[in-house]
């Protein structure tokens, strides 16, 4: 499995989750972020060519709308509940996320986890 296939599988797994009665919105394109949703940028990679694999460090941002501060913690809590157990998350860091087009930062949690991806033929 190469990087593109690994990213597609991560997106598919997140989109299999139901949130507020509909499939959870998820994208790897920052221009498509539409809270509440999950944004998954490409992972950081460490190569180990002799073993035909790379170590990937993934981030997924659980993004809440920034229009009502009273609902931010509730939305982030519900997003965390919805995705818990999908991956072996190692951290969840509060992160104000600036989206393309400017505006106020969106409250988010950056979740991280690690995986191995096979490379080469």
If you had to describe this structure to a student in words, what would you say it looks like?
With 121 residues, the chain is an alpha+beta fold. The protein is elongated. The protein has one domain: Alpha-Beta Plaits, CATH 3.30.70. It has helices at 3-15, 69-83; strands spanning 18-19, 22-23, 26-27, 37-39, 44-48, 53-63, 91-97, 106-118. It has 2 helices and 8 strands; from the N terminus they run αββββββαββ.
Brief characterization of the structure:
The chain is an alpha+beta fold and 121 residues long.
Supply the CATH architecture. 2-Layer Sandwich
Q: So, the CATH homologous superfamily?
A: Phage minor tail protein U
Flag low-confidence runs: none
Mean pLDDT: 91
- The string of secondary-structure elements, in order, is HEEEEEEHEE
Shape: elongated
Radius of gyration: 15 Å
Structural class: alpha+beta
* Share of β-strand residues: 35-45%
User: Percent helix among the residues?
Assistant: 10-25%
Query: For the terminal residues, how far apart are their CA atoms?
Result: 9 Å
What is the number of strand segments? 8
Write down the CATH topology: Alpha-Beta Plaits
Question: Which tags fit this structure?
Answer:
Alpha-Beta Plaits, 6-stranded mixed beta sheet, elongated
Element layout with pairings:
Elements: H1 3-15, E1 18-19, E2 22-23, E3 26-27, E4 37-39, E5 44-48, E6 53-63, H2 69-83, E7 91-97, E8 106-118
Parallel strand pairs: 3-4
Antiparallel strand pairs: 1-2, 4-6, 5-6, 6-8, 7-8
């Amino acid at each position: 499995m190469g990087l593109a296939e690994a990213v597609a599988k991560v997106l598919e797994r997140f989109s299999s989750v139901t949130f507020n009665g509909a499939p959870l919105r998820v994208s790897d394109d920052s221009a498509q972020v539409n809270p509440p949703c999950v944004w998954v940028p490409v992972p950081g990679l460490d190569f180990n060519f002799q073993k035909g694999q790379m170590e990937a460090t993934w981030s997924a941002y659980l993004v809440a709308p920034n229009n009502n501060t009273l609902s931010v913690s509730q939305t982030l809590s519900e997003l965390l509940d919805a995705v818990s157990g999908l991956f072996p998350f190692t951290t969840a860091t509060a992160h104000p996320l600036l989206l393309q087009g400017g505006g106020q930062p969106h409250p988010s949690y950056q979740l991280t986890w690690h995986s191995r991806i096979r490379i080469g033929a």
